[in-house]
UniProtKB/TrEMBL annotation:
InterPro entries linked to this entry: AKR, LGALDH-like, NAD(P)_OxRdtase_dom_sf, NADP_OxRdtase_dom
Family annotation (SUPFAM superfamilies): NAD(P)-linked oxidoreductase
Protein name (database record): NADP-dependent oxidoreductase domain-containing protein
Domain of life where this protein originates: Eukaryota
GO cellular component: cytosol
Start and end residues of each NADP-dependent oxidoreductase domain: 40-302
UniProt GO molecular function: L-galactose dehydrogenase activity
One Pfam family linked to the record: Aldo_ket_red
CDD domains hit by this protein: AKR_galDH (cd19163)
Amino acid sequence: RRPAYSPLRTPAKHCHKYRSRLMAIPRRPLGTTGLEVSVLGFGASPLGSVFQEIDEDEGVASVHEAVKLGVNFFDTSPFYGITRSEKVLGRALKDIPREKIVLSTKVGRYGQEEFDFSAEKVTASVTESLQRLNVEYIDIIQCHDIEFGDLDQVVKETLPALMKLKEKGVVRHIGITGLPLKIFKYVIDKVPAGTVDVVLSYCHYSLNDQSIADILPYLKEHNIGVINASPLSMGLLTPQGPPAWHPAPEEVQKAAREAAQLCESEGVNLAKLAIMDSMRNPEIATHLVGMCTREQVAMNVHTALQALGVETEENGAKNAEVLEKVKEILKPVKNVTWPSGKPENN
Ligand code: NAD
C-alpha cells in the first residue's frame, strides 16, 4: 500500500507566484491507480459555458494558472457544452507537458437526454475526445451518469469495451459516475475486481449533503478511488447562487440562499467555507470544483492550502463560528437530494 498523504510529499516545483510563502497543493493517492491527484481538482464543465457564457481565452488561461499553482487533476466530458469544454481544455493542454497532468473525460452522455453506452459508441467517443483534447491517452475514462442508462449494459458491454482500450494503453484507468449512490455498488459487485478503478460522485459531499460517507468503507474495501465533484453543490453554496437549471428542490435552494445571506452579513465567503469543509476529509482523494477564470483558480487554490494546513487560515475563528451557523441553517435539508435517471436506479 502507498503511504498516507503527507504535505511533505508536495512537489515544490509546482509552486508559482505563491512560491515564496507557500507549498503547492498536497496530493493524495487515488485508490490503487498509482495516480497522485491534487486535493483540489479542476472541474472543466464551466469551460463548456454550462453555468454562464465564458471567455474562452480566459478559460485557457485559467487552466494554465491552475497547473502553475499545483493543480494536476482535470475533469471534462463530451457532454459539457456539447464538446466545447473538451475543445477549450484541449487548447490549453497543447502548451502543458502531458505527464504534468492527470486527465479525466467521459463516455456515454452526449446531451441533456442523449445517452449511448454501446461498445461501438463509447469506443468511437474516446477517439474523438483524444482529438479534441490534443492528447494521445486519457488517464481516467468514466462512464458518465450511468443511472440514465441500462446498468446491465454498462456491466456487460461498456466496461468491457473500455477494458479493451485500457489494454491498448489508450486509456489508463476506468471510472463510473452518477448521482444516486446505489448505482456504484450495483455495478462494482457485478464486474471482475480491477475493472472499476474510481468512482466520481457529485453533490454528495458538501455542506448540505454528506451521504457519500455511507459508502466510503465499501469503496475502500474494493480499492476504489473516490472523486468528489461539486463541493459547492453545483453553485448552490456560492455567494452568487446556482444556475436556473439547478435540480435541487426549492427547500434546499432556499436554505442555501439563507446560508449565503448569513455569510454575506458576516463578511465570510460561503464558497470558501464549503470547499474547506469538504477537503478536510482525508478519505476522499480529490474534490473537483468547477472553474473558468484565473481569479477563481487563485482563490480556490488559496482556500485549499488553508484547508489542508499548508497555509495559516485567514480569519479562522470567524470562519469556524459562521460555519457552525451555516450547518444549523442547512440541517433541516441535510442529504435531501433529487431523482436522477431511471426510477429503478434511484
Ligand atoms: P461546483 O459545485 O464546483 O460549482 C461550480 C460553480 O461554482 C461554477 O458556477 C463556478 O463558477 C462557481 N465557483 C467556483 N469557485 C467559486 C468561488 N470560489 N466562489 C464562487 N463561485 C465559485 O459544480 P460543478 O462545476 O458542477 O462540479 C465540479 C466539476 O465536477 C464539474 O466541472 C465536472 O468536472 C465534475 N462533475 C461531474 C459530474 C458527473 O460526472 N456526473 C457531475 C457534476 C460535476
